[in-house]
Amino acid sequence: MTKIPENTEELTDFILNDVLYGLELDPVDSERLLSYMRERHEHLFGPHSTYFVLGSYESPFKYRLDEALDVLNHRHDAYAYLLATQPDLNVSDDIPDLKVKFFIHALYADSIPLILEHDTGGAVAEFGRIERPTLLDRAYLFPRAQEEHYDDESLLPTEDAVLARSVELAYHADDLDGELDALAERARDHGLNISMQDLDSYLEAELGGRTPSYSGVITDSLVHLEALDQCFSWTTTEELEEQLSNVP
Questions:
Q1: How far, rounded to the nearest angstrom, does the alpha carbon of residue 41 sit from its chain's CA centroid?
Q2: How far is 198 from 185, CA to CA, in rounded Å?
Q3: Per-residue pLDDT tens over the stretch 47-100
Q4: How far, in Å, CA of 182 to CA of 196, rounded?
Q5: What is the DSSP letter of 93?
Q6: Strands 54-55 and 112-116
Q7: Which residues, including other chains, have CB under 8 Å from residue 168's CB and lie 6 or more apart?
Q8: d(CA 126, CA 111)
């Protein structure tokens, strides 16, 4: 299906054919699905703008999701939310309830921002789902440090810029320790009291000890979203907040 289901019959067909791929819903599960839709009607179809925010729930990445929720919820008549905060479906054990729940909310959200900081975990599965034609035109991707914005000359005057550059190096440097050591040395040459240990501690807090990367499959899909003007790179939380202005 390439359009949003407009009634319960179309929704049931979509769930069966596009989500469950032919699994049968027994009458009880069908009624529970319709009951869920009725209970969420005001949330899904209300006059407000809805933002279904996706991304990693792991610490420290969840912090950026919370920041995105805060930014979007400050808009007039807006409701931004995470899937985890929505009621669960009460269906049979052989039905992938989390998957069905995801599509019910994604189908009727006005916009679907995805905050991407690495290429493992649930956020990557969500990325694959929002590439479907039914959802793609409302999906907005925010990959961290996909592009490098801080060059060696412009970053040195401020500590914030040096820290931002360290994040970019974590994503792009082949020899991270060597690059961080050189960055700290250049910062000290310009009067900033920053050591390599300071940069290591900052990256630990920002990335949870993870060495972030994007696989070739991810970067190939990023090209698609970039061509649609629906992909916006960021490095710092402040930049993410600014980039969220691209979500209508």
A1: 25
A2: 12
A3: 789 999 999 999 999 999 999 999 999 999 999 999 999 888 888 888 899 998
A4: 9
A5: T
A6: parallel
A7: 145, 148, 149, 150, 235
A8: 14
Q: Are 67 and 240 in contact (CB under 8 A)?
A: yes
Ordered by where they begin, the domains of the chain are 8-146+214-246 (3.40.50), 152-207 (no CATH)
Alpha helix (H) residue ranges in 40-61 = 41-45
Helix or strand holding residue 183 (H, E): helix 176-189
- For residue 60, whether the previous peptide bond is cis, meaning omega lies within 30 degrees of 0, is yes
Alpha-carbon span 248 to 246, nearest angstrom: 6
The residue behind tokens 């931004």 is 80
pTM of the complete model: 0.90
Q: For the chain, what percentages of helix, strand and coil (3-state, to nearest 5) are there?
A: 55, 10, 35
Question: What is the overall mean pLDDT for the chain?
Answer: 88
pLDDT at residue 7 is higher than 80 = no
